[in-house]
Structures are given as C-alpha cells and as structure tokens.
Amino acid sequence: MYLTITETAEYLSLPESYIEVLIHENKIRAVHDGEQYLIYREQFNQHLEQMEKAKKQLAEYLSEPIPEDPDVKDED
Fold it and tell me: What is the pLDDT of residues 21-55, one digit of tens each?
C-alpha cells in the first residue's frame, strides 16, 4: 500500500517537512506520480520489525549475568 507524504507523516508521527527531506536525501524510497510522492508503507514495517528484533536482542544481552572471573582471587 502506498501512502502520501501527509499519511506517512501521520503513520510515523513525524512532521511532513522531515519526510520531504528524507525523500530528497534518498533515505526513504518514494515514487513521484507527477503530482505527489507516494511512499511504500511496507518499507517502514520491515524497518520497525528489525528495530524491535534488535531491541529484544539487546535486552537479552543486558539481562545476562556477568560471569565470575576465574583469575581473580581474594588473597589478603
């Protein structure tokens, strides 16, 4: 499904001007139909899924306990 710049801004909760900048910097793929830019919504879904996966992996990594160092000896 394709979205207009306005619909994309609402979908991502970003200002329209920022979406336009991202399009002109080729950071968002868009098709120009002669009147307006159309943006494929699935590119954001894939990105958001990857971000959620990365957050989950980071949370798992941070929740692992730090292993004891076998070289440390408490000899006083």
Answer: 989 998 888 999 999 999 998 888 787 788 889 99
Helix H or strand E encompassing 40: strand 37-40
pLDDT tens digits along 65-76:
887 777 766 665
32 forms beta bridges with 37
| Residue bearing tokens 């941070």 | 62
Question: What is the Cα–Cα distance from 51 to 59, expressed in whole angstroms?
Answer: 12
Closest by Cα among 6, 33, 10 to 20:
6
- The model's pTM: 0.62
Kindly state the helix (H) or strand (E) to which residue 38 belongs, with its residue range.
strand 37-40
Q: How far apart are CA 37 and CA 31, in angstroms?
A: 5
